[in-house]
Write a structure and sequence with these properties.
This protein is α+β, with helices and mostly antiparallel strands. It is built from 13 helices and 27 strands. α1 packs antiparallel against α2 and α9 packs parallel to α11.
Length: 591
């Protein structure tokens, strides 16, 4: 869609001077012609009209799109990042601004003690010197299904000295390889170098504790700095072409305010207000842009000392060992002093309740949802008969489409499988399923700009209803940008979902959360699990109470025995899709 020109600050300044000059001339004319008792009234009317005109100029500055240079001067509010992304937050309502503050408060991370940064490596957290201990069960010498297990972690530095402050990013899981069972634990930071890992005991038999340091507190501080100071460390490219002439320029969503003034093409979405900018080609106009693609990564980002904090097998996703036994034997559940025969628990009241757990390789949600197994094309097509399934987001959502398209025939749209859009149709069973990637920022192979759609706009084009299923996963391409960028995007999606549910009651909405990824020093700069954790917390908070269904990919990948990967392996995808289909076709209650 072509963007309408927008008034720039430089143009506005010129217009303002002209209006002021016009105002002076207008005042002289009025005073000369009307030397009567009505002169003051006419003067006030003229001033009112002038103020109205100037206000419209300022409004246009925010509302319209332009293909001109942008420059902004003056100090930013203390809670804003030094990028052009921050200007959008100034347009929120009071309630939205309050939500922003509450979200930022909810994801706030413990600060390091005041000292020169970065700290020497030997004074940072070392998972090899750190240890955890399984605490004895209170009041008894054994554990039963339904109890809670607690492990105490004490972090040490590379010199072996205990750490006296918190902020390390630790994750924990309880698992049993023999039973193909696993559950995510909850880690509590005591802010003094010690941590508690809490696990509900959900199955009988052997259970082993595994605690991993993803990042030290010092490494997290570096990631925070990158997010605030280098928001464009992932950048993009667009191809402009007219006839035989073509140019490629850089594109980013966050424009630095302290950079030299440059001519820009503004592709801010007219409906959502989502900003997107490309450097203007030297010879071509902004309306000749034809593709969007991944550009690359800014380097260097780490100093030599900071790079030492992101070393695989040393202080990046390294397992912490136990000072004693790292496993326990869990006895069957007790009730009124008697042991029950059932060796697992479905939804008992414990201090910490995860979203679910694996048992015999199958995901069992906690909280009332019963998951059915859809193991063949017959059961899947029967469930989806008469349904329209819309999938939006990144490649982690495309995995769902690819899994189901093995049972529902693909319709060849002559598009790349990695880019899409994709469609599957089963005429016999009246099933339509499609997938479309979300709009920029998205790290992707060259794609036509006409195929880039914002999810909020796509949702506004749906009628909805009981036969409509909407599923989306939007997270992986936002990890390198300020969290405010993600909050703004999810706010637009949420508003569109509210409108969809109002006009199409009965629409089933499924949201897939973020998941753990494989990490090394390079990927930590833009795709760290710590960035994903922050995004995951924002996502859950913003859509809580909206009547949507969450597929907890975060816990499903943490609890599973498979190595972390941004694209989880088939066993996890099957469990996710079974959960999706179980909500589309819930198990009928027996009379």
């Amino acid at each position: 869609m072509l963007k309408k020109p927008r008034t720039t600050p430089a143009t506005m300044f010129t217009m303002e001077n002209e209006e002021v000059a016009n105002h002076g001339r207008l005042k002289g004319i009025i005073m000369c012609r009307y030397r009567s008792k009505y002169a003051l009234i006419f003067l006030l009317l003229a001033l009112s009209g002038l103020m109205f005109l100037l206000r419209n100029v300022l409004t246009l500055e925010h509302q319209e799109c332009s293909n001109t240079a942008f420059a902004q001067k003056g100090p930013l509010p203390s809670n804003q990042t030094h990028t052009f992304c921050s200007h959008v937050g100034l347009m929120w309502t009071q309630d939205e601004a309050l939500e922003d503050r509450n979200l930022l408060k909810a994801i706030a991370w413990p600060k390091l003690p005041a000292r020169p940064a970065p700290a020497p490596l030997n004074q940072t957290s070392d998972p090899v010197h750190s240890l955890f201990t399984i605490l004895p069960s209170k009041g008894q010498k054994e554990w039963h299904v339904g109890d809670q297990l607690e492990a105490l972690v004490q972090m040490h530095d590379f010199q072996g000295s205990p750490k006296r402050y918190g902020g390390d990013f630790l994750v924990a899981r309880l698992h049993s390889p023999a039973l193909v069972a696993g559950v995510a634990g909850k880690v509590v930071d005591h802010l003094n170098g010690s941590y508690s890992a809490l696990f509900p005991l959900l199955w009988g038999g052997s259970a082993q504790v595994q605690i991993t340091m993803v990042h030290s507190s010092e490494a997290v501080a570096v990631l925070q700095r990158l997010r605030e100071e280098r928001p464009n460390r992932v950048f993009f490219k667009s191809l402009f072409r007219s006839g035989k002439l073509s140019e490629t320029t850089t594109c980013i969503p966050c424009m630095p305010l302290d950079s030299p003034q440059q001519a820009l093409c503004d592709y801010t979405d007219l409906l959502t207000g989502e900003p997107w900018y490309c450097l203007k080609p030297k010879l071509l106009s902004c309306d000749t842009r034809i593709t969007h693609a991944m550009g690359g990564y800014e380097n260097p980002l780490f100093t030599n000392k900071e790079a030492l904090l992101f070393q695989s097998r040393m202080n990046l996703k390294v397992v912490i060992h136990a000072s004693g036994p790292d496993r326990i034997n869990v006895l069957p559940q007790k009730k009124d002093g008697q042991e029950l025969e059932n060796s697992t628990i479905k939804a008992e009241s414990v201090k910490y309740t995860p979203s679910g757990y694996y048992y015999q390789g199958t995901w069992r949600p906690l909280g009332g949802t019963s998951v059915r197994q859809f193991n063949d094309s017959t059961s899947i097509t029967q469930c989806l008969t008469g349904k329209v399934i819309h999938m939006y987001g990144d490649s982690t959502m495309r995995q769902w489409f690819e899994y189901l398209s093995a049972f529902i025939p693909d319709f060849n749209l002559h598009r790349s499988r990695k880019v899409g859009p994709l469609m599957a149709v089963d005429n016999k069973h009246n099933i339509l399923m499609n997938y479309r990637c979300h709009g920029p920022p998205i790290r992707i192979l060259p794609v036509s700009t006409s195929e880039l759609r914002y999810v909020a706009n796509e949702l506004d084009g749906l009628a909805g209803g009981p036969d409509t299923v909407v599923a989306f996963s939007i997270w992986a391409h936002f990890t390198s940008f300020p969290i405010e960028v993600y909050i703004r995007r999810m706010r637009h999606v949420r508003q569109a979902l509210v409108r969809l549910l109002e006009r199409g009651p009965g629409t089933l909405v499924i949201i897939r959360s973020a998941n753990f990824v494989a990490m090394d020093q390079t990927t930590s700069k833009h795709s760290s699990d710590w960035f994903s954790l922050q995004i995951d917390k924002v996502l859950r908070t913003m859509f809580k109470g909206l009547g949507v269904v969450f597929v907890d990919a975060w816990e499903m990948t943490l609890a599973h025995h498979s190595p972390h990967n941004i694209h989880p392996p088939p066993p996890i995808i099957k469990n996710m899709v079974d959960l999706l289909l179980s909500r589309v076709c819930p198990e009928k209650k027996k009379s």
